[in-house]
Each structure stands twice: as C-alpha cells, then as structure tokens.
TrEMBL record:
<dbReference type="InterPro" id="IPR051266">
    <property type="entry name" value="CLCR"/>
</dbReference>
<dbReference type="InterPro" id="IPR002035">
    <property type="entry name" value="VWF_A"/>
</dbReference>
<dbReference type="Pfam" id="PF12034">
    <property type="entry name" value="YfbK_C"/>
</dbReference>
<feature type="region of interest" description="Disordered">
    <location>
        <begin position="36"/>
        <end position="87"/>
    </location>
</feature>
<dbReference type="InterPro" id="IPR022156">
    <property type="entry name" value="Uncharacterised_YfbK_N"/>
</dbReference>
<protein>
    <submittedName>
        <fullName>von Willebrand factor type A domain protein</fullName>
    </submittedName>
</protein>
<feature type="compositionally biased region" description="Polar residues">
    <location>
        <begin position="73"/>
        <end position="87"/>
    </location>
</feature>
<dbReference type="Pfam" id="PF00092">
    <property type="entry name" value="VWA"/>
</dbReference>
<dbReference type="InterPro" id="IPR036465">
    <property type="entry name" value="vWFA_dom_sf"/>
</dbReference>
<feature type="domain" description="VWFA">
    <location>
        <begin position="202"/>
        <end position="380"/>
    </location>
</feature>
<dbReference type="InterPro" id="IPR021908">
    <property type="entry name" value="YfbK_C"/>
</dbReference>
<dbReference type="Pfam" id="PF12450">
    <property type="entry name" value="vWF_A"/>
</dbReference>
C-alpha cells in the first residue's frame, strides 16, 4: 500500500490527516431517516456489520480557513516548501473543491544524502483534473498539480523483459531549460498480462447517486463508463452494485459477467437522490464483496463519486481501518472521480491509497475507455505490492539532485528494506516514470548511480529486489539528441511544474514549453494523447494571456 500515513508520521502531521478525513467524509448536512428494509440498507445506528459500527447521524461542518505554504527563492538545496494544510481550494472556476499542497522537493547534496527513496505510484487523476480545468477555460489550482501523475499519464513504451515482473530503463540528457543541469529518467515497466490470462474478477460498484451527482451529467458519465467496463467482463466474472444517497442500499447482488442485460438494466436505473452517505455505501459495498469473495481472483471495490460526503459517519479512523482491514483480506479499492463543483480530490486519493488501489479522474468517455479498456489489466490485476524504488547516486559523479514530483510518496532511506512499510501497488502493464534533475561533477565515473526496486509478490508476499546500474555512457550530449519520448515526457514534467508554481521552473513559461514541442513534434511521433497535450498547452497559454 502507498505510504501517505507513514510520510505524515515522519513530518509530525498525522493529526492533519485525521482532520482531513473528518472534513472530507463528514461534511455538513442535516440528519436523515433510515430506510425500513434491513436487507437493502445499513439499518439502525447501534447495529454493526462484520464488526464495523454503522454510521451515526452526527453532522460536521467545514470551518477551517484555506491557506498554503508555497516555495520560492533561488535554486539551492534549502529551497523547499513544507506540506501545506488540506483545505478548500480558492478556486474561482468551481465551488467547494478540495486539494492539498504537498510542497516541492529540494535539491539534495549527494555527499550528505546519496540515496533517494520513494513509493511507486500509478495514479493519473491530477492530469485529468488539470485538463478539465483548462478545457473549461481556466488554469487549475496549483494545489491540484501532482507532477508524477502528469508524467505517468502518458505511455512511455519501455521495453518489457520476457519472464520478469519488471524491467528498468534509464536515460539522461541535458536539461532543455536549466543550463548546467541534466535530467535523469528512471523507467520501471511491469509485465503484461493478456485479457485471456487475467484472473477471475469480482467487482463491486459503489456508486454515489446523491443530488450533486446530478450536476453536469456526472451520473450519466458514470453510467456510460461502467457500461464500458461491463462489456469487458465474462462468464467467470461477477459484478455487484451498491448505491448511496441519503441511505446506502444494495441494488444488484453479484451477477455473472455474461448476464449483461441484467447488469446494464441495473445501471440504467441509477438516478440522483438525496444527500451523500459515503460511509454507508462503503460499508455495504465491502459487505457484498466479502460475502461473494472469489478465491484466487481479483476482488475489487470501484467507488464512483464526486468526492463529496455530508451525511453521518462514526470516526475517520473507523473508515480507514475498515478499508485497510478488507485490503488485508484481499479486497482492494479503486476510486474514480467525476465532476468538479464540490469535488474532493483529497478524499478520493486517500481512500485509494489506503485500499491498495489506484485513483483516476474521469472527465470524458475517452478517459473511461483508457481506464477500462486500454488499461483494463492494470486496473484489475496487481502484479506487485509494496513496490518501492531507491536510487543511489555516485558521490564521485553527482554533486546534487532533486526528485521531480512524488512529494507525498517519499520514504525514509532506511525503510527501503523494511518489509513492514507500506508502499505502492502496480498493476499488469503499468509503467512508472521518475525524473531527477541532477548537477554533474566535472568528471564522472563509468556508473553514476544505481536503481534498486523492491516489491512483494501479491499472492505469496515473497520479497524480490532487483537493481540496474546507470551508465555514464548513456548520457546524451544534447537535449535535442535524446530520444523523442524523453523529450516529450520532460516537457510534460516542465508543464506540471509551471502550473504548480514550482520555483525550480520559475525561469520558464508555458510558451517556452509549447515552442519546444512545436519545434520537435516532427521527431516525436505523437499519438492522440500526446497531441491533445500539445493542444492543451496552447489553450493554457491563451488562458494565461487573458488573465
């Protein structure tokens, strides 16, 4: 599992997470009456379900002022921000949006800290959210930008080693914008699993049908997205549906994947109603998944929501504990965000982190196709858990470095071989890219560093560690002589840093990035998503010019 809580414990801000989850899950709304049918709803407040306390009728309100701590200053190792508070965004475009500022990584002196350790991450929601903003005519809030999720959104086409779970790829070239610095790319590619070889799958859809889901055709997009996924399921798979508005209830008991008429009929019945009792929906969803658990299969909850929750719950710890307990029993959680007004990014990312799943934001039907068709195996089948990387830089070759992104995935160096520390889960065919900006010394050794990867087999918990040396002979003499995909992905990272307001990108603009892309497009062999990104930057430049 990803390491959000571990990172916050190290920074002494665990209490902020609890405030956050209370804020997110507990919201402000009036009390509601329970439905009478015990088999369809969670029932009375003093009952329990598989040992978990049912939601209470207590209500909460958001009363914390928003505020962030931004970075700034010269390019030195001391120039780093601390994580800001998890607060409501000062968003002029959409109301009630919640994001969190995780700061910006500093440069590290290799003589003092030669190792960089982080949990692998394949979430992509931040890029889709930014795209939604830009296509709607405004730049995204700075706190909405997680640079690694921009980078990992795009296909990198890393080579796959036959028979191995992972392959490691490296490339290095001078920075396009910062003279005297290089960019190191570390790519980790997971093995492919064909659709025919996927394990049997038991999916439980937990769907938010509250009133806010009626805005901007959110529920309509949910229905169309889930139909895409249903089309990929077969007779050996099962699908169940739980919905929640003011109350949670079971809409469809687990049904064979080839009974598409029944499943699609249930999806067609979804209509927005009432307030948002996310806790009750999750409790019922886990109950359904547990009672229909598929041995030696993929057992996963898929939560579809706009991230707003305003109906009662017990305590934040209870929900997180429930998600973690069921994860230990083999039931994982994927979160899908829809809509933007009253959207809570923090809620969805935190739940996915605790549930060993991934978090995506669905802003278009094409994005649903990407998640449920193009990346189906990666969405459903885990090939490694507690996956973490450690890059050790050679003190005789590298003067300093900074990891671009992954601020909320950082691990202590000593925890790389601590098998009890939670880290990331990687699905079949998933690729993870990490970029470092580095300052080389005047002369370099044959090997300038080592990439180490450590992970557990998801079925046996057997730990494997692999490594690869970074050869100095692979360093390109010019940015323009780097591979086309390297040039493209570094422009993606630069764009994200500019949108985030990182001081490390303060000497460049979106116009600069757009010019490089336009100049190099003939060499880049752009696919549909790449071309969309170039168009997105052009639109962002136009928006910035109007502001």
């Amino acid at each position: 599992m990803k390491s959000l809580l571990n990172g916050m414990r190290r920074s002494g801000t665990l209490w902020l997470l609890l405030i956050l989850i209370c804020t997110v899950l507990l919201g402000s709304c009036g009390n509601s009456n329970r439905a009478d049918t015990a088999e369809a709803t969670a029932g009375n407040n003093n009952e329990t379900l598989n040992g978990y306390i049912r939601p209470s009728e207590d209500t909460y309100s958001i009363d914390e002022d928003s505020g962030n701590i931004r970075d700034g200053g010269s390019q030195t190792a001391d120039n780093v921000t601390e994580s800001g508070k998890a607060v409501q965004s000062q968003d002029k475009k959409y109301r009630g949006t919640y994001f969190k500022d995780y700061g910006v990584n500093p440069f590290k002196d290799v003589m003092e800290q030669p190792q960089s350790t982080f949990s692998l991450d394949v979430d992509t929601a931040s890029y889709s959210i930014a795209r939604k903003y830009i296509n709607s005519g405004s730049l995204p809030p700075k706190d909405a930008i997680r640079v690694e999720e921009f980078i990992n959104y795009f296909n990198r086409d890393y080579p796959v080693s036959s028979g191995d779970t992972f392959s490691i790829f490296t490339e290095m070239a001078p920075s396009a914008f910062n003279r005297g610095y290089h960019v190191l790319e570390v790519g980790i590619q997971g093995k492919e699993v064909s659709a025919a070889n996927l394990k049997r799958t038991a999916l439980t859809f937990v769907i938010d049908v509250s009133g806010s889901m009626g805005m901007d055709n959110r529920l309509t997009l949910v229905k169309k997205s889930l139909k895409i996924l249903v089309d990929q399921m077969g007779k050996n798979d099962k699908i169940g549906i739980v919905i929640y508005g003011t109350n949670g209830r079971k809409l469809l008991e687990p049904t064979s994947g080839d009974d598409k008429k029944r499943i699609l009929g249930a999806i067609d019945k979804l209509e927005p109603e009432g307030s948002t009792n996310a806790a009750e929906g999750l409790i019922l969803g886990y109950d359904m998944a547990y009672n229909s658990f598929m041995e030696n299969g993929n057992n996963r909850i898929i939560l579809c929501t706009d991230g707003v929750a305003n109906q009662g719950i017990t305590k934040a710890e209870d929900i997180l504990k429930m998600v973690e307990d069921y994860k230990a029993k083999g039931i994982t959680l994927t979160t899908l965000g829809f809509g933007m007004d009253n959207f809570n990014d923090i809620f969805l990312e935190t739940l996915a982190d605790k549930g060993d799943g991934n978090y995506a934001y669905i802003d278009t039907l094409d994005e649903a196709g990407k998640v449920f068709i193009d990346q189906l195996a990666g969405t459903l089948e885990v090939i490694a858990k507690d996956a973490k990387a450690q890059i050790e830089f050679d003190k005789n070759s590298i003067e300093s470095y900074r990891l671009i992104g992954y601020e909320n995935r950082a691990l202590e160096d000593k925890d790389f071989r601590n098998n009890s520390v939670d880290a990331g889960e990687i699905g079949a065919g998933h690729a993870v890219t990490a970029l470092y900006e580095v300052k080389l010394k005047n002369s370099v050794q044959e090997y300038i560093g080592t990439v180490k990867l450590r992970y557990k087999n998801p079925d046996t918990d057997r730990v494997t560690e692999i490594s690869k040396n970074i050869k100095s002979s692979l360093i390109r003499d010019s940015f323009y002589n780097a591979t086309p995909r390297f040039k493209f992905i570094t422009m993606v990272a630069q764009t994200a840093e500019i949108l985030k307001g990182s001081s490390w990108a303060s000497n460049t603009s979106l116009e600069d990035v757009y010019k490089v892309l336009k100049d190099e497009m003939g060499d880049m062999d752009l696919n549909k998503e790449d071309s969309e990104f170039v168009d997105l930057i052009r639109t962002a430049v136009e928006i910035k010019g109007r502001d």
